[in-house]
From TrEMBL:
Organism taxonomic ancestry: Bacteria, Pseudomonadati, Pseudomonadota, Gammaproteobacteria, Cellvibrionales
Keywords in alphabetical order: 4Fe-4S, Iron, Iron-sulfur, Metal-binding
Record's protein name: Uncharacterized protein
GO biological process, one term: biotin biosynthetic process
InterPro entries: Aldolase_TIM, Biotin_synth/BioAB, rSAM_sf
MF GO annotations: 2 iron, 2 sulfur cluster binding; 4 iron, 4 sulfur cluster binding; biotin synthase activity
Residue ranges that the Swiss-Prot or TrEMBL entry lists as coiled coil: none
Length: 446
């Protein structure tokens, strides 16, 4: 069985293969400096400069020949090299037609090999004020983080705050277009009370007289979990563990170091926390106990993210898929807090939450390319749930993204595509996929 150290060593090896040598060396230096935050900050500054140098690189190649070759390789069943997938992400916008042609070929293959219906995921949030925020929350614009422990979060004001079994069960039983429910608590680690509420909710649903509810796939997103937690959840009837890695291993260390930049001479912490390892541990423990995961990323998170950072995240999921298949990933494009809802700029100042700088809005072509890269790296059985930030895809690209990924978020604050749009896209793609089947064979999305 793969151990956490085995997996981290594999990630380190993959990083050496995809990053430019000087950036790879700087990342390794940062990893070895987590016990000395001042030094880590200095290294992070150097990494920032290197990232800016490399993230704008361009390839002088015949793009038509490039796309013709890799499309033919894919059709022939040959694997596409990581080097070519990186080049794909750097393809200029005048290659959009070639990207879409390849995307349709890959999407058709994934639909053929994956007989499961398009997964439409509805999130049900509980305990929506996080009392112990992780590094991602303190550095980012996480709306679950309060100004201090005495106040509610922005999320609680938007979503309310489910905190009993009865409230959970009512929300799950509420008829929805979605065919999958995700039960979410928002703390870094779950309390014993919260865990009992989740367990008893799943047990009650599994004992329901309503066959729709009784058989509904139930994903749980509860922060870091130990083996005992996971075994109890599986026994209760949970079908999947959600815990997002958010970004690649080395980029997470970089973000952690950058979060201490307010005062380099007196950082907030003397040592940096390796949050990413804890998240990997939860996923590995779930796979060890034969329960799959839903784990994804928050992509285009600030101006410093590179193509290679995203590629390393996708490669990490490929390694996890080798342990146990049938996993999935939410595909989230970072939405700055002041863009989530109309009133959030007011809440932003009230709660004094920092927003990661991203000077330019992400264009839909870049989003589509990185979704295609993700799908080329992970197993064809690995669903990718198009969720946060999907508003930037626009209607045409959103339909292509759902077709390629096999999944779509629905009707929650992150979605940014109204539910009617999602329903229409999913219905159309479902009809196309099952056109040759009898009506009874078409999955019921309700």
């Amino acid at each position: 069985m793969t151990t956490l150290n085995d997996l981290v060593r594999k990630i380190q090896t993959l990083a050496e293969e995809i990053y430019p040598p000087d950036l790879s060396a700087a990342y390794s230096e940062l990893e070895n400096s987590l016990n000395d935050t001042r030094n880590a900050i200095k290294i992070a500054k150097k990494i920032k400069e290197l990232k800016q140098t490399y993230k704008t690189k361009a390839y002088s190649i015949d793009w038509s020949d490039f796309f013709e070759r890799i499309t033919q390789d894919f059709k022939n069943g040959s694997s596409i090299s990581i080097e070519d997938i990186i080049k794909l992400e750097y393809a200029p916008e005048d290659q959009a037609d070639n990207v879409i042609e390849l995307l349709n070929v890959v999407a058709a293959n994934r639909a053929t090999e994956n007989n499961e219906a398009i997964r439409v995921c509805q999130s049900i949030y509980a305990f929506t004020t996080c009392l112990t925020p992780c590094n991602y929350g303190t550095y980012g614009s996480c709306i679950f983080v309060p100004k201090d422990n005495e106040e509610t979060s922005v999320a609680e004001r938007i979503l309310g705050n489910i905190n009993t079994v009865d409230e959970f069960v009512d929300a799950i039983k509420n008829k929805s277009y979605s065919n999958n429910r995700k039960l979410i608590t928002t703390s870094r680690t779950i309390t014993s009370h919260q865990f009992r509420v989740i367990l008893n909710t799943i047990r009650e649903i599994r004992a329901s007289d309503d066959p729709h509810c009784r058989d509904l796939p139930m994903c749980v997103s509860l922060g870091s979990l130990n083996e005992d937690h996971i075994i109890q959840l599986k026994d209760a009837g949970a079908t999947r563990i959600n815990h997002n890695l958010e970004t690649s291993y080395f980029n997470s260390l970089y973000l952690s170091a950058m979060s201490q930049m307010e005062d380099e001479q007196k950082p907030k912490k003397k040592t940096l926390d390796n949050e990413h390892k804890r998240r990997l541990s939860t996923l590995l423990t779930g796979l060890k106990n034969d329960i799959g995961f839903c784990s994804g990323g928050m992509l285009f998170y600030g101006d410093d993210e590179m193509v290679e950072d995203r590629i390393l995240l996708y490669l990490t999921y490929r390694e996890l898929d080798k342990i146990k298949g049938g996993n999935s990933s939410p595909f989230n494009v970072y939405v700055p807090l002041d863009e989530i809802v109309e009133k959030s700029s007011e809440w932003f100042s009230t709660f004094e939450l920092p927003v990661i700088e991203r000077k330019a809005q992400v264009d839909r072509y870049s989003i589509l390319k990185t979704l295609l890269s993700f799908s080329l790296i992970v197993s064809s059985q690995h669903k990718i749930i198009v969720s946060a930030g999907s508003k930037w895809l626009g209607d045409e690209y959103y339909a292509l993204a759902v077709k390629l990924s096999g999944g779509a978020g629905l009707a929650n604050y992150l979605q940014q595509i109204d539910s009617e749009t999602t329903k229409n896209v999913v219905d159309k793609l479902t009809r196309e996929k099952f056109a040759s089947s009898s009506p009874a064979a078409i999955p019921n999305q309700m």
